[in-house]
TrEMBL record:
Listed pathway(s): Nucleotide-sugar biosynthesis; UDP-alpha-D-xylose biosynthesis; UDP-alpha-D-xylose from UDP-alpha-D-glucuronate: step 1/1
Keywords in alphabetical order: Decarboxylase, Glycoprotein, Golgi apparatus, Lyase, Membrane, NAD, Signal-anchor, Transmembrane, Transmembrane helix
Record region (Disordered): 1-33, 91-110
Entry function: Catalyzes the NAD-dependent decarboxylation of UDP-glucuronic acid to UDP-xylose. Necessary for the biosynthesis of the core tetrasaccharide in glycosaminoglycan biosynthesis.
Molecular function terms, GO-annotated: NAD+ binding; UDP-glucuronate decarboxylase activity
Domain NAD(P)-binding: 124-339
Native organism taxonomy: Eukaryota, Viridiplantae, Streptophyta, Embryophyta, Tracheophyta
Locations listed in the record: Golgi apparatus membrane; Golgi apparatus, Golgi stack membrane
Catalytic activity: UDP-alpha-D-glucuronate + H(+) = UDP-alpha-D-xylose + CO2
Name this protein carries in UniProt: UDP-glucuronic acid decarboxylase 1
Family: Belongs to the NAD(P)-dependent epimerase/dehydratase family. UDP-glucuronic acid decarboxylase subfamily.
GO terms under biological process: D-xylose metabolic process; UDP-D-xylose biosynthetic process
Pfam families: GDP_Man_Dehyd (PF16363)
Length: 354
């Protein structure tokens, strides 16, 4: 036991040796940077240099052949276009098609791939209605992408059901009184009940749609730099004192009558459109639409043509109001849509087609 106690004491004494008597700390020496011979030896060992050269060769081959491949693809696409054009014209397989360019009679010109009009992204408010649905058909038919915004107060899904499977068509159930954020090139603002039966049903909603809805759509046009078309009405002339009405005529409107929610609402919408044009540089068109008729009209909307048609279908006598000497101007819906969706530079007073 005494011997074991002595061994334990000796170990304890060794542990209590002061740090000053221990060997001093020496950090690990840093390696010297590799010299050039050692670097070359590293490259040549295990054929590393060979792999580097092979990688450089593959990359150089790709960048050299890429322009040739792109020219080949363009030439094949051009030949496909040429063959399709020739088949459409002659209805027989062509032997060879050439396009002369400039003064060279025998030179073959190349048709640019993807030539044609740029596809536009267009929003149509009130696109499920009578005029709006025909306008959507026209825009889809010319190859554009169309987003329809409608709250279905007077619009009907049946007017657009034939477009549901089209990938360039989109339908959003939304009230334009509330703002919406979209990225579009053009805005056709048609949202508003247009027949007396409908706009008198909720006059406050009618004027809110005309004012707040137009304000929201003009704000969207300003943010994204889109063209803006406002569909106004002949009702801005009110009960006119001159016939026919000229664009310089300011109208004769009763601001407190039953129809004023629609008449004054459209007049305010025109004011907002012109203020955004003058103050914010928004490209604006205003179309004052008169009596329009055609397919998809609501049968009982209280207008002249629909009243005559409804009474004829029901075998009722046709009603002529007043003394029968009043005049109306009528246009078919396809004529209106063709004018409003025209994409050129021409203009005709207030109705300024695109």
């Amino acid at each position: 036991m005494k011997q074991l106690h002595k061994q334990m004491s000796s170990k304890r004494d060794e542990e209590t040796i002061p740090m000053s008597q221990s060997s001093p700390y020496s950090p690990k020496t840093l390696k010297h940077p590799r010299s050039l011979p050692r670097s070359l030896h590293y490259l040549f060992r295990e054929q590393r240099l060979l792999f580097i050269l092979v990688g450089i060769l593959i990359g150089s081959t790709f960048f050299i052949l890429q322009p040739s491949l792109s020219r080949l693809g363009a030439a094949e696409s051009t030949s496909l276009i040429t063959r399709s054009v020739s088949y459409a014209v002659t209805d027989s397989p062509p032997s060879r098609s050439t396009f002369n360019s400039g003064g060279g009679g025998g030179r073959t010109g190349r048709v640019p791939v993807g030539i044609g009009r740029k596809r536009l992204r267009i929003v149509v408010t009130g696109g499920a209605g009578f005029v709006g649905s025909h306008l959507v058909d026209k825009l889809i038919g010319r190859g554009d992408e169309v987003i329809v915004i409608d709250n279905f107060f007077t619009g009907r899904k049946e007017n657009l059901v034939h477009l549901f499977s089209n990938p360039r068509f989109e339908l959003i159930r939304h009230d334009v009184v509330e703002p919406i954020l979209l990225e579009v090139d053009q805005i056709y603002h048609l949202a508003c009940p247009a027949s007396p039966v409908h706009y008198k049903y909720n006059p406050v909603k009618t004027i809110k749609t005309n004012v707040m809805g137009t304000l929201n759509m003009l704000g969207l046009a300003k943010r994204v730099g889109a063209r803006f078309l406002l569909t106004s009405t002949s009702e801005v002339y009110g009960d006119p004192l001159e016939h026919p009405q000229k664009e310089t005529y300011w109208g004769n409107v009763n601001p407190i009558g039953e129809r004023s929610c629609y008449d004054e609402g459209k007049r305010t919408a025109e004011t907002l459109a012109m203020d955004y044009h003058r103050g914010a540089g928004v490209e604006v068109r205003i179309a004052r639409i008169f009596n329009t008729y055609g397919p998809r009209m609501c049968l009982d909307d209280g207008r002249v043509v629909s009243n005559f048609v409804a009474q004829t279908i029901r075998k009722h006598p046709m009603t002529v109001y007043g003394d029968g000497k009043q005049t109306r101007s009528f246009q078919y819906v396809s004529d209106l849509v063709r004018t409003c969706s025209f994409n050129g530079k021409r203009s005709c007073r207030t109705l300024q087609p695109w």
